[in-house]
Design a protein that fits this description.
With 418 residues, this protein is of the alpha/beta class. It contains ten helices and 15 strands. Strand 2, helix 3 and strand 3 form a beta-alpha-beta unit.
Length: 418
């Protein structure tokens, strides 16, 4: 029986940007979260007496600010050395050879795969052959796996690779590869990194993204951890996810169609938050909540969003400690919208907004106008979550729906929108 852990994208000491703007945010706990999650990985390895730990890239989040990041990593892998547990790792785009200028000698139980070519390491005592190649530079755009060797006969073959695979939204297209290409090598397990969401791409052979062990912001929501892999004496492989995160982020959507009163809404919010808190299993929980859909409450919510945002935050506080609402978005619609066929200036405007997403010429005009706006935005608003995604039709449609609801509300108010 062989047991090992597959982790990736540790991003030790990754800075958390702009969290300070949210009053009451658990800043100290979040800033230490990547370290605590890595400690959990080491503890899991010790408790299960695994043979080795794989780290498929991005142990670090870029060059170290000082040596404390490296010293912490050395202290943790030294714990594994005392238990006879090896660590095998490849460099990713964030900790590529060209990115890291400070170095510390690692304990002798740690093997970092070469970056200039694929390297194979055979563990005869375990009947395992490990293959890997790290990033020599941050931007690797060729398929590294194409040069990996064929499987070693008679061994359980494992490939470590930092890759976007066939491409994943929100991740740079680094070291792209295909499932057919990976299968052609004859390995039993591919330990992938770079994509921060846990995903099993194939089971024959196993091709797995472990995801990162700790979410660092709201776009990295849900349970985070590593994969525990067990191989029995017949070579049969079992893969199980193990949660390691110490703080959890969740995006919750609440459909408001059935709500007749504000109390109905607040009761539903509270119930939803309690369910999410229970699923977090005692971890601090940071939530972004979106209230959506047509509802009889729409006019009340939109007439005084500050009040209802406060009411929802109060409902969250009533759930109890360990839960914090990062942001609330009221994206409801009226039960009966004015028809674009109603005529008049409002009808013409609604007709334009209804038709624009499906009309290539209209969409192009909107994109051009927004592109000019984007160039005028501060640099910090041109990237990340707040950035305009002008080439994404779904993003453009969603923004037009919001604009339609806003203009409809303001122009139907009868007071000129004042």
């Amino acid at each position: 029986m062989l047991t090992f852990l597959h982790a990736a994208d540790i991003h030790l000491d990754s800075p958390l940007q702009r969290l300070e703007r949210y009053a009451g945010a658990p800043l100290a706990a979040v800033r230490q979260a990547t370290r605590r999650a890595f400690e959990n990985l080491v503890q899991l390895a010790l408790e299960n007496a695994v043979a080795f730990v794989l780290i498929a890239g991005d142990i670090y989040d870029g060059d170290w600010k000082d040596y404390n990041t490296g010293l912490f990593f050395v202290s943790q892998v030294a714990r594994l050395r005392e238990a006879g547990i090896a660590v095998y790792m490849v460099a990713g785009n964030h900790d590529a050879a060209s990115q890291i200028t400070r170095y510390l000698r690692l304990p002798d139980n740690v093997h970092r795969f070469a970056t200039h070519r694929p390297e194979t390491l055979v563990r005869d005592d375990l009947g395992v052959a490990l293959h890997g190649q790290g990033f020599a530079a941050r931007a690797v755009t060729r398929d590294l796996s194409a040069d990996y060797p064929q499987a070693v006969a008679g061994a359980y073959n494992i490939g470590l690779l930092h890759t976007c695979a066939g491409g994943r939204e929100g991740h740079e297209p680094y070291a792209p590869c295909t499932l057919d290409g990976l299968r052609s090598k004859g390995y039993a397990y591919w330990a992938l990194g770079h994509v921060h969401r846990q995903e099993i791409l194939a089971r024959d052979p196993w091709v797995v993204f472990a995801g990162n062990p700790q979410g660092r912001h709201i776009r990295e929501s849900g349970a985070k951890g590593a994969m525990q892999v067990t191989v029995d004496d017949t070579g049969r492989t079992t893969v199980a996810f193990q949660a390691l995160d110490v703080i959890r982020w969740e995006c919750l959507t609440l459909a408001a169609e059935a709500f007749e009163s504000g109390d109905d809404l607040l009761d539903a919010v509270q119930q939803r938050l309690m369910t999410a808190q229970s699923a977090a299993e005692g971890r601090p929980l940071i939530v972004r909540l979106e209230v959506t859909g047509p509802t009889a409450l729409h006019d009340r919510l939109q007439a005084d969003p500050e009040r209802w945002t406060g009411e929802i935050r109060a409902a969250g506080l009533d759930v109890g400690g360990g839960l914090w609402i990062e942001k609330i978005r009221l994206a409801t619609l009226p039960l009966a919208e004015p028809s674009a066929a109603a005529g008049g200036p409002l009808g013409e405007l609604l007709a334009f907004l209804d038709a624009a997403p499906a009309d290539p010429e209209m969409a192009a005009v909107l994109r051009a106008a927004l592109a000019d706006l984007e160039r005028r935005l501060p640099r910090e608003l041109q990237h990340g979550e707040a950035a305009l995604r002008l080439e994404d039709p779904a993003w453009l449609r969603a923004r037009l729906v919001e604009v339609r609801a806003f203009l409809q509300r303001r122009l139907s108010a009868g007071d000129g929108g004042r």
